[in-house]
């Protein structure tokens, strides 16, 4: 039967010049190009090739059935040769028809079903080359949109598990690139949901190979931010509960390494975007001018270097804060629908599983990360950690980092206190190694940053004593603990360790206590800026008032005010009996207003006298205080001794009370305004600003928010300058540490390597040899000093030049004379030997 259909594909149908199998293969590309140029003119040839393709498929199936049923080796060998020829011809025809399928949609409508059916039923029995050609043909049909990806998705998933590496790679790349291309311009949620349901079904199945391939596709699309939604994130997280331990390990590894992958992927982008999106750093012109123009060359160089360090540190801090707590921060664990259930289920599996230590440690880190991100309460987790907190424990820093990550302000301190004491008792004591002490102090600092209520006064003072240690890592860890508690609770420290904290009465929040913000963060900076602008305008108004003092003095209104004030003073001193207490109060209020106006005029007239005679004002204030105290004592004595005195005494007492009230109010206003007209105007301007803001309902505009952002940047720049010794009037100790918020701490991932910072690890012999060899690379071969001198090339040395230097004539003659005398003396000594005094003469 197959041979009856084979002659249908004749050389005339394929090409006029084709006369054989080789000719057919060579003519197919040419015929394909002709069909694309003129589809209608080659319809008959297409039908002949289509019949030949169907006959080849039928022939191949028959030969495969015969090969499977035959038992003799001879028949199997012959069938294998024929099957190879048919497979080659079938693969070429399938690719040819897939290329021309868009031009003949009616004639080749059932081509995808035929190719898909052949792959679905006989994929494992097909030869490798034919299988690859058929998969390529089907991919071409999907790319030409002749068949939808949803219809072939299950087939491509099955093709990845048949054991053919080339087909697996081809099918995987096709699925990923097709979904990426589909979501490139806009996202079709309906199609995405269908494809996700197919992959989720494979992932939830018990067969490991299919679930692994589905999980790999989901992770790749999620990492590429194609399927970056909650459904995909929850499906990946739920893979931690798969029956297969391999898939569980892969899911845990993905969740732990996702942040590292994101940092590696975004490192180049962040470095390239630094120039385009620089953090907002605002430095005052005065600081920049001082660094560039004031001082000697050496001091200017130092100031420039400090300024550059300030800018770099601020950029690094702002970039780090935006990466950690900004909108671009992401982890699949943040989108868990039921984080509490996820943590409890994974913790129960951790307690029951018999996996190796590395797997259990990874599960432990995922649980701790989930607890920290979502502020969960899992009280059984901390006693489980307590069993492994030992200095000799394997990967103890990773375990301690997980313990720190699982601490937050919603956990009861009583639940964490046994673990906290275990860490202190096991790591921080005199017989422990310096490395263990440093790690223990760093862990204590990180835990207290999240739960400050765990620390008491006695324990803190004991831990602070390690600041005197000779080991650098230990002393640095102890000083960092001091810096932390200077910020959160200075009262627990000894007086000499407190320094100058910003808030001496600061205390940690009680368990369950929450701070509710009642205004916009940073609005107080806007108020301070407004008051500083008012002060600048007051300076300008003061100069104007001082120039127009004569006009103010010559104005008729001033004389009238003086007359009124004198009359009012006389009326209050007479003490009229007919006025009741209410009228006295009203008159007192009017007198105070008028006196304040007059005092304003007097202060404007005598501004120079106030500035020059500040000592006289202080003496007058002291005398007024003494008079006030005398009046108070007199009134108290009169009220105690004579309760039934006559009417005159009452009028005198009332006048004394009125004078006392006036004087106290006047002194209070003077103290509040600091006896300065500028302060009074500043106070009035601030009150007006508060009233206007209250009337407006504290609604801030976009310009106000931009101004708040600028003021925050200025404040941070000022603190950074003060920390590097470039600021004026600020305490550097008070700006060395900035307490992060609870949300920032929960978002921040604790790095185990930072818990053992500044610890010098002992090098092995191989590492020491590598360091020695690295130091010898730029150094030549060893030679003796004399050999180096003998091989020296170039001029004479300084000593040789000194020997050959010509001396003056007198000096040379003197030297020659000295040498002759020395020679004569040597000859005398050498020619005769003294043998004592002669006995004869």
From TrEMBL:
Keywords: Nucleus, Protein transport, Ribosome biogenesis, Transport
Position of the signal peptide: none
Location(s) in or outside the cell: Nucleus, Nucleolus
Region (Disordered) location: 1-42, 529-661, 723-753, 769-841
Entry function: Required for 60S pre-ribosomal subunits export to the cytoplasm.
Compositionally biased residues, Basic residues: 815-841
Recorded GO CC terms: nucleolus
The keyword Transport belongs to this UniProt entry's keyword annotation: yes
Family membership: Belongs to the SDA1 family.
Protein name according to UniProt: Protein SDA1
Composition-biased stretches (Polar residues): 732-745
Gene Ontology biological-process annotations: protein transport; ribosomal large subunit biogenesis; ribosomal large subunit export from nucleus
Biased segments, Acidic residues type: 529-546, 574-646
Domain spans labelled SDA1 C-terminal: 794-839
Xref: InterPro entries: ARM-type_fold (IPR016024), Sda1 (IPR027312), SDA1_C (IPR048292), SDA1_N (IPR012977)
Keyword 4Fe-4S part of the UniProt annotation: no
Comp. bias intervals (Basic and acidic residues): 769-781
Domain SDA1 N-terminal per the UniProt entry, residue ranges: 96-469
